[in-house]
Amino acid sequence: PCRLVVKATAGARVIGKRGESIRAIRAASGATVKVLQDNLPPALLRRQECIVTASCGEASSLQTALAGILDRVFDRSGLPDAAERDRERPYVVDVVVPEKASGPLVGPGGERIRALIEELGCDLNVVREPLAGVAAQKRVRVLARERDRVELGVWR
């Protein structure tokens, strides 16, 4: 499955009013999409974060689900201040990966991650500390000025 750590407000946008957004993502992709808000480790709750998961058998379905999720996570239309809505800022999302995958992702001397950063046109940062309260998991922060670059980085 693909697992993303997002702010609680972004998780609420993925769900949508009366579950409309998450149902639409599920219908369009055929994937199983869940927003884990309860029963999270205290550290995530304190930081007002949740975990969004998407899983299915087909890669194309998972990619469609991921695009729908990120559309909602990065939706700025609900911001009350127009200047804040239009302000340019980077797109950032954290992907949850097994801790043992972080070494091969970085590669010897950082070679692999530097090549991915150049290829994908986004910044990738493996957060050194394990994901608080979640055994043997780490965050990989994906950051870019363009939304589609973040989506590509998460997908890879």
Automatic annotation (TrEMBL):
The keyword Mitochondrion does not apply. Keywords: Repeat, RNA-binding. It holds the Pfam family KH_1. InterPro entries: KH_dom (IPR004087), KH_dom_type_1 (IPR004088), KH_dom_type_1_sf (IPR036612). PANTHER family: KH DOMAIN CONTAINING RNA BINDING PROTEIN. The keyword Nucleus does not apply. One of its GO terms (molecular function) is RNA binding. SUPFAM superfamilies: Eukaryotic type KH-domain (KH-domain type I) (SSF54791). Residues 1-74, 89-145 form the K Homology domain. This is K Homology domain-containing protein.
